[in-house]
């Protein structure tokens, strides 16, 4: 099938890209002008993540016009707390590409492939976890976590967290095939081969997708954005703060929850422009009659 006739696939990060915690809303406007919010995640009985009411409607339009694939560093358990304002996606990617969910169920063949790849190409989880937790200072560490036995992260006090520690630890980890990413109050150490883009490529192959569009805010999203036909980066987050860019990635100026709206608008505009410019198919020829006339 020609690429132009295959479905568009939208592969997007979730946290601080399409959904936002209360601390990430960045509602800088007067209270009376703040957007109405819809809660899309509850944790331990408390509302945790939100989208704007307008964004909720845009989600529904996007799901009708493209193959929407959430792509997150969240574990499967954390992802399943999220209730996006659309039907459950046919595919979702969790644990930074370590798990593909198909209709909500884990694809064990993909996970086995990832495990084999990591074992062959980078230092083991135990070595990195021990180094991270041994060198981190309890003064600024709130929590230490292992995610799906694939990567590790810290929850830190940002006011007292030393950026020099992150730089030193990143240099040590780089030599062992791992990357370090600071996202808000979380500091991640992730094996370099564990990428969102690899899982997205596998989903695109299975779904027969044509153009891939992407959005994300952190360094763990950079490979996803680079692999897409076009991508969008919020005006906040790791990528914006570092000035990261690429020729086919649009850096938006909006920040906070209203940027989720801006991303959804941009995705839909791209999809609709593509549909308008798609070449018309020639009319099918009628079958020839027995006397040879068509």
From TrEMBL:
Organism: Streptomyces aidingensis
Protein name: Hydroxymethylpyrimidine pyrophosphatase
Region span, Disordered: 275-294
């Amino acid at each position: 099938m020609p690429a132009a006739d295959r479905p568009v696939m939208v592969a997007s990060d979730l946290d601080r890209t399409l959904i936002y915690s209360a601390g990430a809303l960045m509602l800088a406007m007067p209270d009376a002008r703040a957007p109405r919010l819809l809660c899309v995640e509850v944790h331990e009985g408390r509302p945790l993540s939100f989208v704007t009411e307008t964004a909720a409607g845009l989600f529904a339009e996007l799901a009708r016009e493209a193959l929407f694939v959430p792509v997150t560093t969240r574990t499967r358990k954390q992802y399943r707390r999220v209730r996006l304002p659309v039907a459950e996606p046919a595919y979702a990617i969790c644990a930074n590409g370590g798990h593909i969910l198909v209709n909500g169920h884990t694809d064990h063949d993909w996970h086995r492939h990832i495990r084999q790849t990591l074992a062959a190409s980078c230092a083991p989880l135990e070595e990195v976890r021990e180094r991270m937790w041994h060198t981190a200072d309890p003064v600024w560490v709130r929590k230490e976590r292992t995610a799906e036995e694939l990567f590790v992260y810290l929850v830190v006090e940002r006011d007292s967290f030393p950026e020099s520690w992150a730089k030193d630890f990143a240099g040590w980890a780089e030599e062992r095939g791992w990357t370090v990413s600071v996202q808000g109050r979380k500091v991640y150490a992730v094996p370099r081969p564990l990428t969102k883009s690899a899982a997205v490529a596998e989903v695109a192959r299975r779904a027969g997708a044509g153009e891939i569009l992407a959005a994300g805010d952190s360094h763990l999203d950079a490979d996803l954005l680079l692999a897409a036909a076009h991508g969008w980066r919020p005006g906040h987050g790791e990528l914006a703060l570092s000035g990261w860019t690429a020729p086919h990635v649009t850096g938006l100026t909006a920040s906070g929850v209203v940027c989720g709206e801006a991303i959804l608008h941009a995705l839909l505009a791209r999809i609709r422009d593509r549909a308008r410019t798609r070449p018309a198919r020639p009319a099918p020829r009628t079958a020839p009659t027995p006397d040879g006339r068509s």
